[in-house]
């Protein structure tokens, strides 16, 4: 059982997320325990302030140490990995999601405003960004991390579904089809209806390679191809030159 504590000023943003689909089921099955904490409750003044103007002047507000770190103290333990969501962190990836499944306890800090008091970083083990764009706060980012990690935990989904994930073997997924065999004149590739498992496997591998080559060549840059993959790549390149 993994435990995830999320520290946020907008706990209501998590309502739909925690009560829907696979995350809801994973919580019910005891695969993961997720708690959202409103660190505004730890503010001491009448106005429940959590931010203040920056020393040295300038625009915007800075999240102050006290309410957030007092909240952190109530959830931290020796096993906890404290993660800060920020555009300045390492970019999140499937590999990071897999690595995080080895942790017992994640604590994810979501900030709003222009930034954090730098001294908050002394209590943080890892800073993660979900991509090079600017959000209004870290809540959506923390849900991205929580979602990507939770679905990988034992019992969250059928184990075999992970093996087909895009990125799990460094390739994009092959095209999939379901009934009917023809829709508005568009046919399902013949090989998929043939029942010939070896031909289907080879077709899917070739489609994965082709799609990755065309859409995400960066993923192939330092990939060690098997003999079979190298041969399929030659076929793909020859077909594309025609
Ligand atoms: N991936 N944001 C955090 C506040 C902030 C500003 C500066 C630290 C330093 C984001 C992202 C993201 C917006 C969340 C700014 N925190 N989080 N917030 N991209 O854009 O994770």
TrEMBL record:
<comment type="function">
    <text>Specifically methylates guanosine-37 in various tRNAs.</text>
</comment>
<dbReference type="InterPro" id="IPR029028">
    <property type="entry name" value="Alpha/beta_knot_MTases"/>
</dbReference>
<keyword id="KW-0963">Cytoplasm</keyword>
<dbReference type="InterPro" id="IPR002649">
    <property type="entry name" value="tRNA_m1G_MeTrfase_TrmD"/>
</dbReference>
<feature type="binding site">
    <location>
        <position position="111"/>
    </location>
    <ligand>
        <name>S-adenosyl-L-methionine</name>
    </ligand>
</feature>
<protein>
    <recommendedName>
        <fullName>tRNA (guanine-N(1)-)-methyltransferase</fullName>
        <ecNumber>2.1.1.228</ecNumber>
    </recommendedName>
</protein>
<comment type="similarity">
    <text>Belongs to the RNA methyltransferase TrmD family.</text>
</comment>
<keyword id="KW-0949">S-adenosyl-L-methionine</keyword>
<feature type="domain" description="tRNA methyltransferase TRMD/TRM10-type">
    <location>
        <begin position="2"/>
        <end position="221"/>
    </location>
</feature>
<comment type="subunit">
    <text>Homodimer.</text>
</comment>
<keyword id="KW-0489">Methyltransferase</keyword>
<dbReference type="GO" id="GO:0052906">
    <property type="term" value="F:tRNA (guanine(37)-N1)-methyltransferase activity"/>
</dbReference>
<dbReference type="Pfam" id="PF01746">
    <property type="entry name" value="tRNA_m1G_MT"/>
</dbReference>
<keyword id="KW-0819">tRNA processing</keyword>
<dbReference type="GO" id="GO:0002939">
    <property type="term" value="P:tRNA N1-guanine methylation"/>
</dbReference>
<dbReference type="InterPro" id="IPR016009">
    <property type="entry name" value="tRNA_MeTrfase_TRMD/TRM10"/>
</dbReference>
<feature type="binding site">
    <location>
        <begin position="130"/>
        <end position="135"/>
    </location>
    <ligand>
        <name>S-adenosyl-L-methionine</name>
    </ligand>
</feature>
<dbReference type="InterPro" id="IPR023148">
    <property type="entry name" value="tRNA_m1G_MeTrfase_C_sf"/>
</dbReference>
<dbReference type="GO" id="GO:0005829">
    <property type="term" value="C:cytosol"/>
</dbReference>
<keyword id="KW-0808">Transferase</keyword>
<dbReference type="InterPro" id="IPR029026">
    <property type="entry name" value="tRNA_m1G_MTases_N"/>
</dbReference>
């Amino acid at each position: 059982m993994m435990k995830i504590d999320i520290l946020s000023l907008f706990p209501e943003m998590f309502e739909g997320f925690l009560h829907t689909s696979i995350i809801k089921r994973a919580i019910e099955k005891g695969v993961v325990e997720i708690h959202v904490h409103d660190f505004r409750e730890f503010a001491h003044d009448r106005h429940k302030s959590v931010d203040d103007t920056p020393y040295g002047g300038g625009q915007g507000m800075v999240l102050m140490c006290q309410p957030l770190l007092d909240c952190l103290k109530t959830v931290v333990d020796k096993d906890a990995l404290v993660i800060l969501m920020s555009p300045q962190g390492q970019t999140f990836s499937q590999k990071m999601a897999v690595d995080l499944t080895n942790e017992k306890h994640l604590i994810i800090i979501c900030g709003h405003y222009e930034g954090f008091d730098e001294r908050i970083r002394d209590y943080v083990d890892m800073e993660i960004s979900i991509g090079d764009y600017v959000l209004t706060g870290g809540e959506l980012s923390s849900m991205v991390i929580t979602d990507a990690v939770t679905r990988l935990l034992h019992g969250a989904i059928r184990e075999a579904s992970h093996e087909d994930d895009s990125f799990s073997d460094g390739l994009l997924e092959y095209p999939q089809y379901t009934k009917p065999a023809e829709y508005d004149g568009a046919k399902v590739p013949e090989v998929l209806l043939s029942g010939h498992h070896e031909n289907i496997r080879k077709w899917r591998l070739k489609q994965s390679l082709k799609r990755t080559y065309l859409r995400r060549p960066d993923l192939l840059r330092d990939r060690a191809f098997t003999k079979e993959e190298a041969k399929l790549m030659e076929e793909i390149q020859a077909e594309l030159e025609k």
